[in-house]
Every structure is written in C-alpha cells, then in structure tokens.
C-alpha cells in the first residue's frame, strides 16, 4: 500500500513536472511575443513620428498661389538610391493653384543643370526648385525678374510686381517695334 501511494505520488509529481515544463515553455513564448510586440510598437511609433514630422514639414511648404519653393536635401543619397533602383522618384509637397483650385505635385528635373542658364541645381547637397504655375501668362523674357521677387512679400504685392514687370516689358517691346517701323519708313 505504501508502495502504491509512493507510485501514485511519483506519477502526480511527474505530471506536475510535465505541466510545469509546458507552463515554462508557454511563458517563454509569451515573453518572446511581448518582446516582438514592443519592438513592433516602437517601430510603428518611430514611423508615425517620421510621418508627423514629414507632414509638419510639408504643411510648412503648402502654397495656395500656384508657386512652390521645394527644398530637397541629401541629393547625393537620393541620386544614388535612384541609380540603384531603390527609390527612383521623389514627390514634391503638394501645392495649390489657388485656395479653391487644383492640388498639384511636381516631378523633378531630369538633367543636372538648368539648360537655359547653365546653373547647377545642386549646391551643398541641397537642391532648391522654384515651381510656378502660370498657364502661359508670363512672358519668357520677364521670367528671370519674376523669379527673383522676394517670396517674403505678401502675395498681392508679388502679383503687382509681376504685372508691373510684364507691362514694362510690353511697353519696351512696343517702343522697339515702333522704332523699327519708323526706321523702315524712313528708308
């Protein structure tokens, strides 16, 4: 009888030992899963933080007057990523043609220099691109003056300067044409 009790106790202890091993394994799995969830949460939080930072930066650049000054940093890295095929394009922050009009983004230039002025786009690993939505109203000859207008000025003053430059150019052009016609008539 004592032997039987000892055997029963030994069997119970073995079952309890087996259950203890299963519980330890389950606890290890749960700890591992908690660790993975913590890492995933940290990655998600870092991603959300980056997205908020990007969003704040983009909100800083949002324009409603059809213009955008786009600052692109780490240009060498972006070119390397594009050449390797890792990330072949970048998108500008959105900007609008007016408060109630189209939302627009821009694809960057395909060459390393501005063909018209032969100026390099990149300086100190940073590229600034000024994008103007104009619908053909601005004469090409006046564009350099318009691009040099101080962006710190209120929009209505920038627009007045643009109109003034266009008008001055048109008057000078008309005077030149009138001079040519007068000279032709004298001959």
Automatic annotation (TrEMBL):
Report which superkingdom the organism of origin falls in.
Answer: Eukaryota
Question: Which InterPro entries does the entry mention?
Answer: TRAF-like
This one is known as Uncharacterized protein
